[in-house]
Specification:
- 68% of the residues lie in helices and 0% in strands.
- With 214 residues, it is mostly helical.
- It has one domain.
Amino acid sequence: MEYALALPSAYLLGSISWGLIAGRVRRGIDVRDYGSGSTGTTNVLRTLGPATAGIVLMADVAKGVIALLLTRVLIGTALGESIAGLLVIAGHNWPLFSRFHGGRGVTVAVGALAVMSPPAAAISLALFVSTVLISRYVSLASILSIVAVMVIIPTLVALDLAPWEHLLYAFLGGPVILLRHKGNIQRLLQGTESRIRLRPDRTPRVDPDSEGTP
């Protein structure tokens, strides 16, 4: 019964597309019609500006945090937490309430990781922020932070500082997010990836695989 309540709730929490809601409320637009066509934080930043993007960022991180805390209370096992983390990422990326068209999964994954493994989340976040400040490539920062998690979690498990079940989260969730950034990886290698800008750009979307978003 606990699994039946906690795990579907994780997916449904992930399915709340705060970027889509923000676009409707603030500008009466569908953010999926602009930029990358994603509902994630970066596309909200490009479309609606930093203030709205900050709110969406916190709301998306909160989805991961709440899903993991709920699972910890109801189930209380590392396996349950890992599965819930994967489901909240799936909900964010393929939301039930938004025609299964969501974000890339980075922000919600960090929220879940903050509950599951605070040290891994802190290192990943520090790498993300420093990479954005230096390169202004959000996609590169996202990719590097996810790869870092896929290294940090096994290291913590090997040192007996984390349960082995967390490997499921790292080695299933990580590749899913990286695959969502496939187009970004190609453009980074080609030198055609767009850098982050703070000024809103509401140019109608042309390429659905343009600049990646969390």
